[in-house]
Amino acid sequence: MSAIIFRRLLAAIPVLFIIVSLTFVLMHNAPGSPFSTERHIPAPIMAELEKKYHLHGSFWRQYGDYLGDLVHGDLGLSTQYRNRTVNEIIAQSLPVSMVLGSLAYSFALFAGITLGGLAAVRHHKAGDRWLMFAALLGISIPNFVLALLFIRVIAIDLALLPVAGWGSLDQLILPALCLSVPFVASITRLTRGGLLEVLRLDFVRTARAKGLSETAVLFRHALKVAILPVIGYSGPAIAGVLTGSIVVETIFGIPGIGPFFVNSVLNRDPFMTCGVVLVFGLFLILCNLVADILYFVVDRRVTMQ
Amino acid sequence: MALRDIAPHPRTLVLAAGAAALGLALFLTFFYTFGGWTLSAPADLTICNGDEPQTLDPAVVTGQLEGRICLALFEGLTTRDAAGRIVPGMAQNWTISPDGKTYTFTLRPEAKWSNGEPLTARDFLNSWRRALEPATASEYAYQLYYLVNGEAYGTGKITDFSQVGVKAPDNRTLVVTLNHPTAYFLELASLQTLCPVYLPSIQKYGDDWIKPGRIVSNGPYVMKAWRLNDYILLEANPHYWKRVPIRRIKVLPTRDANTCFNLFYSGKTDLILDQSSLPPTLLPDLRKKAYFHTNAFGATTFMRFNVKRTPFNDLRVRQALALALDKQDVVDKILRDGEPIANTLVPPGNAGYDPPRGLVRDVDAARKLLAAAGYPGGRGFPDVNLLYSTKGSASSGIATEIQALWARDLGITSIHLRGQEWKVYLNSMGSIDFDMCLSRWVGDYNDPQTFIDMFVSDGGNNDTNWASARYDQMLAQSESIPDPAQRLRIFHDMEKLLVEDEAPIVPISFMVGAVLYDPHKLGGFEPNFVDDHRWGDFYIPGKKN
Predict the structure, then answer these.
(1) Cβ(B105)–Cβ(B86) under 8 Å?
(2) ipTM score
(3) Is B457 at the interface with chain A, CB within 8 A?
(4) pTM score, whole prediction
(5) Do B262 and A299 touch (CB under 8 A)?
(6) Strand partners for B78
(7) CB distance from B47 to chain A under 8 Å?
(8) The pLDDT of residue B78
(9) Contact assessment for residue A35 and residue A42, using Cβ atoms and an 8 Å cutoff
């Protein structure tokens, strides 16, 4: 199995190379310069700026310089945050997003699987219908609406939690909740669907015939198989949630990496944009790999090859 | 299918438990290592500053939000009091030669860096050299072009700094020689670009010198912490020449207007400094609150015409559009912040400056001019575009409203809106790739010149293709006149040419800042025309300091 993991990681290198190169080309050709401001910049100073940030000379030279830096683990300088390297920005903001994301997703897994199980057990009863309606709402209501609603009711009207900010545990609750809602909804639906299929199978009937309680049947036997779609879904979902959300992080004033996915493009910050794309790509590849390994571990029918 | 074929491997449960434990451990490690848990120290004053600073290097800073923090950390030869007046800063006093070209500053004997080392005139000289050097790539270096040979050194034409008009004959004396009698040089001396920086730290750490633990400064505050997009923590500088009333200030880079207001509303922040940090829809209600304060801003919103393109190459068309524009409607319906409408470019607040009248709204006259230009009732008016930036909600609102107003009053229906992303907009404006362009200008200092000299022929910020030999000649004349009153009279004539006789631009409104704070909780904040509030003057009323 380790050989397969090694091969998958090796294959990730050309994939990352291609996405970074594409991003670099797009940023290079985007209209507007990273250094444009409302005030005219004299030509000699503009030339110095371009030199300092390795943005002078031909496209191939800039691209070559950047790839050379990348090989040494140097993601370049941010043109927007003048005294910071991209490495430094990512090192400061990615862990923040990961803290929030891991909390949100842990909650989503816990709540989603529980609610999905409940819905499956009460299939075609009122409880199931209400849960599925709630899940539909959870998927369809955009984050920013939910976040503002939570802030208005919980943080302002009831004054139970802080409205925004970062640094204490109570400041984590609202953003993590907002972030988790769409995942809770999806996981609920996936778990319910998986369980409904599995509950009809022979081995479940056997387990029931042995006289096991319905809870034991559900959680000890059926769920282990029914969870497979959730694992498949979680790979890309975790990659997304750990690399931050622009909406939730902006609204709650959280110093994570999420807003950089949009703002670095708007600021025409070429190396920062490539940096966040690289981070997301890396997470996506790793999380999918982990999901595949988990598939193999949970379901012995799957073979790794 | 038999049960044993699909039953999970016994290791599964162990693995799952292991994964859960690992996840929890990871979460806690991340949170306590990077979460800022231990770092978020309480402060005596928390300020919402609108965005994350791009840099705090005084030589490189150009933005207002960066400038504020910079001026809490650093101080120039002069500074401002709460009312915005120029007062002595690092310089105790100064003398000006009769021709207005030589300034001799005497530094305070107690002038020190935050590490306790004495601050000397050479520090100023070397810092100015650094700001001017092309390698520093300072976009504001032109604030030092007023010095003799400043521009030549800044653009690399000469490399001998001893030819530049600044000398330090002894530790406490700085002699500055200017090209022209520059009436506002004492204002410039208070800007961050002219603040001294601690060069040993820059030589040692390079770009990292500005980070906490490395930065040495000379202003009322020193930097204790700077976490990207999280907060900056400032603490009173014990070596500053004056006692600073508020000990610790926390600066939040909160970008979202709703979040800023929520923080203020729930008591988590004490001061909001920018109108862009307030939700526009709440403005009409906020204006009635005791914690709402307005502040003139020294900035103007205006429209640029590209005078090389038809129909704006025709003066009558430009004047007609200027005369017809219902600016009050734009302010009332779109801006809703009570901004005064503008018929001139230079905002009020410059003592002694008498502005021209400008083109005051007169729709009948406008219609006649438009008809004379060949477009009676707007018929036959060519397709033109109106460029604006989509950053923030105000610009697109103003552009849409103006399009509707000119259609209503002049019958022009062929104006097409062209909203562009900020950096693209700047590019289009800089290359004059537009017919009309909604613009704004924030003055660098409190003098009409910072507005007037934009429109000199081929000026870097002219961006209208308008060129007037008479205008250039008057500007040159104003620079050599030591008599302030006569200089302001020339500016009056120049502005008349700009906004009445030639009209390459249409002024729309003078921007007003909106500030939120509770006067019972914060003192030392006075509205002033330069919108420059030094944090070292803030105090907490009733608290014994």
Answers:
(1) no
(2) 0.89
(3) no
(4) 0.89
(5) no
(6) B88
(7) no
(8) 97
(9) no
